[in-house]
Amino acid sequence: MRRKRLCNAHARSTGLPCRCKAMLNGRCRLHGGLSSGPKTVDGKAKVAEATRSRMLNGQSELAKAGFQRWLNAGGREYLQARAMHRKRIKKIKAAYDAWLLNNQSI
Ligand SMILES: [Zn+2]
């Protein structure tokens, strides 16, 4: 039996860990699991700056360990699924382009 991975957030009121099931990024849907990251150019720049300053303060080892943890906790499957999806889209697009070429002259 596989134990469900829990969200690693803590309640501010009690200090107890959240008991919800974590999503791929290690948080439940109430604690940032649904977040898909920054969307605006401004937001992306802010996150990049924050990441850069964190890395300069010697947190790159921590980040590497965290990434490894994410990979082992299902991130690898996620990345593989994304790659397969991209490959499938590429194939479909190529087939469509070929079809367009064949049907242009008619
Ligand atoms: Zn949570």
Low-confidence parts: none
Number of distinct beta strands: 0
The number of helical runs is: 1
Distinct small molecules: zinc ion
The value of Rg in angstroms is: 20 Å
Task: Note the main sheet.
Answer: none
Order of helices and strands: H
| Distance N to C terminus | 60 Å
- Tell me, rounded to a whole number, the average pLDDT: 86
Shape annotation: elongated
The portion of residues forming beta strands comes to under 5%
Helix content estimate: 55-70%
Structural class: mainly alpha
Q: How would you describe the overall organization of this protein?
A:
Helices cover 60% and strands 0% of the residues. It is an all-alpha fold and 106 residues long. The mean pLDDT is 86. The site of zinc ion has 8 residues, from loops.
Topology:
Elements: H1 41-104
The structure holds zinc ion.
Task: Provide a quick synopsis of the model.
This protein is mostly helical. The protein contains 1 helix and no strands.
Keywords for this structure?
106 residues; mainly alpha; 1 helix; binds zinc ion; elongated; 60% helix
